[in-house]
Amino acid sequence: MAKANLTMDELLAEADGVKRAATGETVTGNVLSIRKHEILIDLGARGVGVVPRREVAFARNLNVGDEVTASVIESEMGDGSILLSLRKAAKEKGWDEIQGRLDGAEVIEVTPFDANRGGLLAEYEGIRGFLPVSQLSAEHYPRVGSSDKDEILQRLNSLVGQPMKVRILDANRKDNKLIFSEKEAVKDGLAERFAELHVGDVVKGVVTGVVDFGAFVNVDGVEGLIHISEISWERVNNPSDYVKVGDTVEAKIIAIDKERLSLSMKQLSEDPWLSEVENWKRGDEVEGTITRITPFGAFVQISSAVEALVHVSELGNGNDADPEKVFTLNERKKFRILDIDREGRKISLTVA
Fold first, then answer.
1. Which residues are CB-neighbours of 247 under 8 A, at least 6 positions away?
2. How do residues 181-198 score in pLDDT, each as one tens digit?
3. In this structure, which CATH number among 3.50.50.60, 3.30.565.10, 3.40.50.9100, 2.40.50.140 belongs to the domain 25-90?
4. pLDDT for 246-301, tens place per residue?
5. What is the C-alpha separation between 70 and 261, in angstroms, rounded?
6. What is the pTM assigned to this prediction?
7. How many whole angstroms separate alpha carbon 262 and alpha carbon 54?
8. Where do the structural domains in the chain lie, given as residue ranges?
9. Do 89 and 28 meet the contact criterion of CB atoms below 8 Å apart?
10. What are phi and psi of 245, to 5 degrees?
């Protein structure tokens, strides 16, 4: 029977059979009108829904006739209309999308909009999330001294506004918790890159951080570390005297583990220590400068690349055996070579 031919009693009976919208339910309707302070939604037999003024800006791209999905905030107001929220429905839909991406371990793209010392803030499908510093890739990780908090924040702020590939690490709708990971997004590519690298390869990379114990280098997305002992054949006291963040450096791979390359800059050149001691032998007299004084002896620089040790046992007995009473820093003295260990790169001296 066509609705046009239904009697009033039949229409009322049909209306009574329509399920009333319940608070929290998601409903679908068409935009009936867009006003300055509210949007009216035609919900068919269920009646008319009202989206309040606080959400008008949220729905600025809607047009009359558009189909929308909304959440019921109040099932029946005083005038009989239904109070709706487009924002809440969009958020619920966003969480559904996020859960699907998490379950599928999919790589997505987010653009950070703010930063703090703990990481980056980003939004996905209308849900705000967090990308911790610990989950940044080697390319973006702020490798600086632990006390350089201002520099860490400065590095993170430089990433704000830059699109980044991430995976969803954790999503909890109830607690409104969303965590991203850039490390997880790039790990598949890193595995392939690691497979292409071998000990002995010479690679180029960009210095991403300089710390007391060395320099971190990004080699096409793979993190490498040049330990302070592998920067130069000379004694290195401060790595920042040799490399700066942003420098492009060439280095040799000396070890590979699951997460990082061990690199050496100094092994790209010949060891000057070997050439400088080539003509020395036991008993030769040399002259050098006292560079360090320790309880077990004194270190002497006897050439540009060679530092030797005068052990405390070579200083005699009694008070004379105290290196600090025998030597003065930067003092030049004559010594005699006791032993040369070319394999271990060590020279032992005694006072001439």
1. 206, 207
2. 998 998 888 878 888 899
3. 2.40.50.140
4. 899 999 999 998 778 999 999 999 888 888 888 899 999 999 999 999 999 999 99
5. 52
6. 0.58
7. 56
8. 25-90, 105-186, 197-268, 279-351
9. no
10. -60, 130
